[in-house]
Amino acid sequence: STPVHSDTSPMTLTRYMIQVAMDNTDLEHMQDMQSLMSSIQLACKKIASLVQRAGITNLTGYEDSGSINVQGEEQKKLDVLSNEVLKNALRYSGKMGVIASEEEDEPVMVDEVYSGNYVAVFDPLDGSSNIDAGIATGTIFGIFVQNTGCLASDWESKIDETELTCLYNTMQPGANLVAAGYCMYSSSVMMVLTTGHGVNGFTLDPQIGEFVLTHPQITIPSRGKIYSFNEANSPQWDPVLRDYVEKLKTGDNRAGVKYSSRYIGSLVADVHRTLLYGGVFGYPGDQKNPNGKLRLLYECAPMSFIVEQAGGIATTGKERVMDVIPDAVHQRMPLIIGSKDDVQELLDMYAGDK
Ligand code: P6P
Q1: To pair with 349 at 20 to 30 A between CA atoms, which of 31, 48, 223, 325?
Q2: How far is the centre of ligand 1, averaged over its atoms, from the C-alpha of 128 (Å)?
């Protein structure tokens, strides 16, 4: 049952996590999630303030060093800063064993003194190219349990290659996630989180500097009226997907409804709108980029966990995103995600059913 929020007793994210941990002593990891979320929300509050003041503090634009990240993208000042803020917050939580970030070439092991048994994967500031235009961006994170043999207590006895194995066996499928969430920096700052028992949304109240429960137990509508794809790529899409989107446009679909198109170009904002309003978002593979553009480990998998927990579907087009075992930290993966009936209609078209 969702704890009650009132003006005289605001249901903050901190209080919510304490209450859920108390009410569910049987649920593994809930105590640890409490302290992890306290670190993550601190980092997101800091990133929110950096993003909102970027133009004032001359933090828009690119790194003076012109540094290029492993994605081959020129790093924005805020990309680097947000990564440091989140890495430090996670390190000092005392729960982290290894962290993998879009902004880090390789996974980073947290030094023993602060080490714990969890693995964090994150995109510290997704959509940062939108910052200079004041368009929504977000932080995406996922939490895994460190694999056995790689627990903090084992590190002392680690020899190099085992250490390397531990660093790389953080490449777990989304089905192993124990928590996932995103913080969206937009007209409001919203933290949306799942620990495997539903999805809850918290809005940052600037008056008290706390995330407050505003969207308890989010469920995605079974069907929406919005599709969200970068249609500039449609000439390279596979014919089934082109046909599916065409049917959304003409109304010749199972709902008999003509859909609207909305595409912000910021994964967190496009998925958040899809989660609340329903419909379908996709960044599919195409002839040019067979695996699309989005990263499996710290973009597709956490978003898929959230949407599945809200009653939606997240697929690569061929299989459930959360079943895919990554073989590289920055591996790209096609993503079609959203309302159950919307995504199922596409999957049935791929299977040859009309
Ligand atoms: P395109 C932002 O750069 C991002 O990684 C996601 O946030 C977003 O969904 C996607 O790329 C947009 O890509 O090719 O449509 O501009």
Answers
A1: 325
A2: 9
